[in-house]
Amino acid sequence: MAEGRSLPEVRALVGASHGITDLAHKLHFYDQWAPNYDQDVAALQYRAPRLAVDCLTQALPGPRHAALILDVACGTGLVAAELQARGFRQLHGVDGSPGMLDQARARGLYQCLSLCTLGQEPLPSPGGTFDAVLMVGALSDGQVPCSAIPELLRVTKPGGLVCLTTRTNPSNLQYKEALEATLDRLEQAGAWECLVARPVDRWELATSELEVGPGTSDSDGFISGIIYLYRKQAAAQAEGGRPGA
Prior knowledge:
Blueprint: H1 7-18, H2 23-33, H3 37-43, H4 48-59, E1 68-72, H5 78-85, E2 90-95, H6 98-107, E3 112-115, E4 130-135, H7 149-155, E5 156-167, H8 173-188, E6 192-205, E7 222-232
Parallel strand pairs: 1-2, 1-4, 2-3, 4-5
Antiparallel strand pairs: 5-7, 6-7
Helix pairs in contact: 4-5
């Protein structure tokens, strides 16, 4: 097994990934990165999978072992590892990178894994299938477009939960603004309600000094992020339908 990359090398690699906005190039990048992905993001102290699963766990009712969970843009399965550690067992995953799915399959935590490029094709599940849907770390330019958010809602059971994350560092703020406009439109249409919008200061180590946000000291060197948690309305409504009463 090859030695792990140094922190400067990891920062350069992840910084390069943030700069790829073409989806085909991004997916190829992830295919190549997949074998070393876990150790590289660990070097950056990437906390989003644990924080997102904690947020979901606090809000999801019922026995955890029986909840059917979809991990969208599942990558190597870091979110599944956090879910499994908290007692969730019914896990499905989708990702657009065959290389990432190979790594996820090797973990043995998913009951079902599917290749799916969200934004270009629908999720491979009927409507109203899952108790909860998560998408952690894929909401940025060149990955999952904001226009794909209603597809997450479609496969969520009425009353089910959708947990999303995105970075709030300077290079991602334009995407975050567009994302929140999409989230708000769906809420105003009565499709779901926001339960949590939780800013997180220490999301992961910045890839450069330019990525460190205002108020964050250079010695800390972390970028910020945010976790959103929504509950799909129990009453079935067409997306973009009349606002809830």
